[in-house]
Amino acid sequence: MRKQFLALACLLSIQQCSFASEEGDWLKSLDEADSASPTRLAARSSAHSADGDSTVTDAELHGLTAATLRTRAEHALKVGNYKTANRLLERALELAPSDNDARLLYAQSLKMQIDKTHSKDPVLFNQCVKQYFSVFKNSDFLEDSKVAERHLEELTGHRPRLFSKPAGYLRSVLKPEDTSTESVAAEVLEPQQVP
Asked: What tens digit of pLDDT does each residue of 16-33 get?
């Protein structure tokens, strides 16, 4: 039992080193992992707002890779912090617009937020539909396309056809808001490249 506990503790410290090395400051994270001071714990707990969502600043997002942001967003989703997960995934998609895994996770996060809050917000609904439609059209994997297709049918009541024109499908399923569907269709099919 003691050997198993030591092996688990060693594995956790190695894992903390690997996550910290992605951020470039692995030695500092080892020192912080060994000393969990009450002030650090108080600072962490004060970062949570009243509704349970933690706030993420732009300074915290700077310098992180898209994969790191996606991993942190997965953790935020498991905890139920939809706003934090959405912010992290938006930044991950800015860094890697062609990352369909992040796009699918972002769509799932938006859908979870819609389901949890029973939101009738057309902007949130339209963003969710656009993300799922982008995964449906641009994914290299059949499984991801089928998952997106199933969620699109559940959200809108209409299953997209494989060779349907994006503007036509989006015009028929999106809820009215300030932007036009033609510009939305162009944005979905050709995400803007970040230099």
From this structure: 444 444 444 433 443 343
Residues 33 and 103 in one domain: no
pLDDT at residue 159 is higher than 80: yes
The CATH number given to whatever domain includes residue 105 is 1.25.40.10
Residue that has been written with the tokens 């992290």 in this structure: 88
Q: What angle do CA 10, 15, 20 make, to 5 degrees?
A: 130
Q: Mean pLDDT for the chain?
A: 74
Total domain count for the chain? 2
* Digit-coded pLDDT (tens) for 91-150: 999 999 999 999 999 999 999 999 988 888 899 999 999 999 999 999 999 999 999 999
With CA atoms as reference, report the closest residue to 136 among 149, 125, 124: 149
Residues 36, 26: Cα–Cα separation, whole Å: 16
Instruction: Give the chain's end-to-end CA distance (angstroms, integer).
Output: 52
Of the candidates 141, 119, 122, the residue with the CA atom closest to the CA atom of residue 130: 122
Distance from C-alpha of 13 to C-alpha of 73, rounded to nearest angstrom: 21
Q: What is the DSSP letter of 36?
A: -
